[in-house]
From TrEMBL:
GO terms for biological process: autophagosome maturation; compound eye development; response to light stimulus; terminal branching, open tracheal system; vacuolar acidification. The lineage of its organism: Eukaryota, Metazoa, Ecdysozoa, Arthropoda, Hexapoda. This is V-type proton ATPase subunit a. Residues 712-723 have a biased composition (Gly residues). One of its GO terms (cellular component) is vacuolar proton-transporting V-type ATPase, V0 domain. Keywords: Coiled coil, Hydrogen ion transport, Ion transport, Membrane, Transmembrane, Transmembrane helix, Transport. The chain crosses the membrane at residues 421-449, 469-489, 558-576, 591-611, 662-681, 759-781, 787-811. Residues 704-726 are annotated as: Disordered.
Length: 859
């Protein structure tokens, strides 16, 4: 548990490994996940390191595995994931893995190429089949649609074209009869038409027609028909819609022009015989070839499926093995070679408590490699700041993540996470207090906790779900605490539970209650004298006029009380930091004035609240009746400004207790006196310590050395607590830093106290929203009667439930969560937490494989 309250003690170690044992030893350390290696070759290019070729080989193997994975996912084949993590293969096994992956890739690429060629051939034959069918229809039509594009087409030409169509079944030739102008000597000379047939994408057809019309000036005849069934594109496997077209033209010039236009629109042209017998013969040959291709394609797909199924069984394990090999060689590139080239030297950060475990892992690696020379692990002395390492489990991990999101703790600094486990859900519950809403949230968190193994195994890439699942214990605790505060507020879906019976009774008769909208209960006669056993009396639920007034006063005061206690606790945490780092100056001249300032002003205000609650009551006689109760806010303002309190009502006292005025003046003077102590004491003492150090060094050395001065002042002031760099700062920077820190604390004490009023504001808003939903939605359904009322109630309840979960639980819950996070980051942690460290990032196979899988899913 020590590492939960402070980060683990870390040690910088030097590791000596024999070259033949280095791979196995690093593999064992990767399985252990407790060592963070430093780069001893920061100036060496990544392509000039010793094991760069091995890393490249691993990259190539990863590329082949990703190709296999993509093909497996394309076919929808499930990949076997046993959840086990195989050990990193030996270096000699890399050759076998490379050969296996090479064989699989080549075989799969060859199968894919063959399948693509077969599919392309199948597509061409299918298109040709549709062309032969559609062109036969075109030729069989007696009156085709003719494009009349220019004045060259006359009525005589159209009549002769009809005559040609009537004789079409005899000679199966399309002829155009017309004038040739200057080029024709006979007006009625018959000329033979040429034609081309092909297939084009359906969406390109309108533009294709317009281009033909304009480029050929309307001297072409185009017929087109849609292919009903979509065709598969062999390149990407997409389904495309195409149309068959046939173009009639006259002359070679138009033929060339038409073919160029077809090429520009990527239309595929196919040969089409003129004679019907030839077309029938070609169609029969095409159908035969399509049947043969279907058989061959089926066999190819079966073979491809068998190859992928065999690869899918081992793909996950192969990925793990390759990533482990790559991680090992990448880590070995961080090492240095000694002069003999037989030993690798590494430097690493390790937790002090785990050094023996690490040494055992190194021995196992040496035994696996068969080396006779044991590895050497030496602890080094260093002035560097070690990384911060907090051990966590599945419960504390989420709370630690909240703290680290603000900033990673400085080395051995007090860790707020264990206290946040309680304070975070509690402050959230103060704002979210509702038994019903808290139960919904707690049940959701409990469901995720009960099913956590199955849900964790699904490994979805939905970011929102991963956030919810990662914080399942936070959600559960927030729900449980909200149920508790809901019982305190006696609030469940904006209604109250009358478990113990109200301790108020009504002295009015029935007619008085029904005839008067506003009635008031007198605490002297209508209150039994003892409070409701647990939480708030349910009578306040029916108090329409002063319910909010009472709740406001109650929740506002408890918000200030919780806030001041939370801030005092944060200041006390700074004392633990100062004592641990033996920072005597900060303890005497920062911690004590800060605590005194907070206690004498704001904690005194909290005490006034309790005194007011205890001494003043409606059942008491003057001067302690409810009419004589002073305003705490006015009292505090008068105290700070040294104002004379206003004259109290008759028979009431000015002060709540004897000597209050003297105590308040004394408290304010002492609190104000703490400000110059916080502002000047620490910088002046540092300046004095430096001056004494200079006086002691000069008679001996004859001159002042920066190194000697820094060493003396370091030992004389903080004792290593504030960090060795603080004494090296210039005095002007120290004064400026201390001024900013003091001003921030003094003004922050006021603003932070007011900031805790968000507990009251959000609690009030949540309760009012719940009441609005009940009054304006659910109560409408509850007022309905009969079988129709049951249907209406069901619909209204469904709508109310959706709004309750969506708005009050999700949106209000998120709002309360963010406000609670702010109270911890700013109001609480600013009192003691610097968060200037850097996280311990050990060489761990588990983390590397998890990150690799996450990046692969993101791609």
């Amino acid at each position: 548990m020590g590492s939960l309250f402070r980060s683990e003690e870390m040690a910088l170690c030097q590791l000596f490994l024999q070259s033949e044992a280095a791979y196995a030893c690093v593999s064992e350390l990767g399985e252990l996940g407790l060592v963070q290696f430093r780069d001893l070759n920061p100036d060496v290019n990544a392509f000039q390191r010793k094991f760069v070729n091995e890393v490249r080989r691993c990259d190539e193997m990863e590329r082949k595995l990703r190709y296999l994975e993509k093909e497996i996912k394309k076919d929808g084949i499930p990949m076997l994931d046993t959840g086990e993590s195989p050990e990193a293969p030996q270096p000699r096994e890399m050759i076998d893995l490379e050969a296996t992956f090479e064989k699989l890739e080549n075989e799969l690429r060859e199968v894919n190429q063959n399948a693509e060629a077969l599919k392309r051939n199948f597509l061409e034959l299918t298109e040709l089949k549709h062309i032969l069918r559609k062109t036969q229809v075109f030729f069989d039509e007696s009156v085709p649609t003719v494009y009349k594009s220019s004045s060259a087409y006359s009525s005589a030409k159209y009549r002769r074209y009809l005559q040609m169509a009537d004789n079409q079944n005899e000679d199966e030739q399309a002829q155009l009869l017309g004038e040739e102008g200057a080029r024709a000597s006979q007006p009625g000379q018959n000329l033979k038409l040429g034609f081309v047939a092909g297939v084009i994408l359906r969406e390109r057809l309108p533009a294709f027609e317009r281009m033909l019309w304009r480029a050929c000036r309307g001297n072409v005849f185009l017929r087109q028909a849609m292919i009903e069934t979509p065709l598969e594109d062999p390149t990407n496997g997409d389904q495309v819609h195409k149309s068959v077209f046939i173009i009639f033209f006259q002359g070679d010039q138009l033929k060339t022009r038409v073919k160029k236009i077809c090429e520009g629109f990527r239309a595929t042209l196919y040969p089409c015989p003129e004679a019907p017998a030839d077309r029938r013969e070609m169609a029969m040959g095409v159908m035969t070839r399509i049947e043969d291709l279907n058989t061959v394609l089926g066999q190819t797909q079966d073979h491809r499926h068998r190859v992928l199924v065999a690869a899918a069984k081992n793909l996950k394990n192969w990925f793990v093995k390759v990533r482990k090999i790559k991680a090992i060689y990448h880590t070995l590139n961080l090492f240095n070679l000694d002069v003999t080239q037989k030993c690798l030297i590494a430097e690493c950060w390790v937790p002090l408590l785990d050094i023996e475990t690490i040494q055992l892992a190194l021995r196992r690696g040496t035994e696996r490699s068969g080396s006779s020379v044991p590895p050497i692990l030496n602890r080094m002395q260093t002035f560097e700041n070690p990384p911060t390492y907090n051990r966590t489990n599945k419960f504390t991990k989420a709370f630690q993540a909240l703290i680290d999101a603000y900033g990673v703790a400085s080395y051995r600094e007090m860790n707020p996470a264990p206290y946040t486990i309680i304070t975070f859900p509690f402050l959230f519950a103060v704002m979210f207090g509702d038994l019903g809403h808290g139960a919904i949230m707690a049940l959701f968190g409990l469901w995720m906790i009960r099913k956590e193994k199955g849900l964790a195994a699904q490994k979805t890439d939905n970011e929102i779900w991963n956030i919810f699942f990662g914080g399942r214990y936070i959600i559960f605790l927030m729900g449980v605490f909200s149920m508790y505060t809901g019982l305190i507020y006696n609030d469940i879906f904006s209604k109250s539970l009358n478990i113990f019976g109200s301790h108020w009774h009504m002295s009015y008769n029935k007619s008085t209650v029904l005839e008067n909208k506003y009635l008031q209960l007198n605490p002297k006669g209508d209150y039994e004298g003892d409070p409701y056993p647990f939480g708030m009396d349910p009578i306040w639920q029916v108090a329409g006029a002063n319910k909010i007034i009472f709740h406001n006063a109650y929740k506002m005061k408890i918000s200030i009380i919780f806030g001041v206690i939370h801030m005092i606790f944060g200041v006390v945490m700074s004392w633990h930091n100062h004592t641990y780092f033996r920072n005597r100056i900060s303890m005497l001249y920062e911690f004590i004035p800060q605590l005194v300032f907070l206690l004498l002003l704001f904690f005194y205000m909290v005490l006034l609240m309790f005194i007011k609650w205890i001494k003043f009551a409606a059942t008491n006689a003057k001067p302690y009746s409810e009419a004589c109760a002073p305003s705490i806010l006015i009292t505090f303002i008068d105290m700070v400004l040294f104002n004379t309190p206003k004259a109290p009502p008759q028979d009431c006292e000015t002060y709540m207790f004897f000597g209050q005025h003297f105590i308040q003046v004394l408290f304010v003077l002492v609190a104000v006196g703490c400000i110059p102590v916080m502002l000047l004491a620490k910088p002046l003492l540092i300046m004095q310590a430096r001056k004494q150090a200079n006086e002691e060094v000069q008679p001996i050395a004859g001159a002042t050395s920066d190194a000697e001065t820094g060493g003396v002042s370091n030992g004389g002031s903080h004792g290593g607590g504030g960090g060795p760099h603080e004494e090296e700062e210039e005095l002007s920077e120290i004064f400026i830093h201390q001024s900013i820190h003091t001003i921030e604390y003094v003004l922050g004490s006021v603003s932070h106290t007011a900031s805790y009023l968000r507990l009251w504001a959000l609690s009030l808003a949540h309760a009012q929203l719940a009441e609005v939903l009940w009054t304006m939605v659910l109560s409408i359904g509850l007022k309905q009667e009969g079988w129709l009322g049951g249907i209406i109630l069901t619909c209204v309840f469904a709508f109310w439930a959706i709004l309750t979960v969506g708005i009050l639980v999700l949106m209000e819950g998120l709002s309360a969560f963010l406000h609670t996070l702010r109270l911890h980051w700013v109001e609480f942690q600013s009192k003691f937490y610097k968060g200037q460290g850097y996280a311990f990032q050990p060489f761990s196979f588990d983390a590397i494989i998890e990150n690799g899988a996450a990046s692969a899913e993101a791609e």
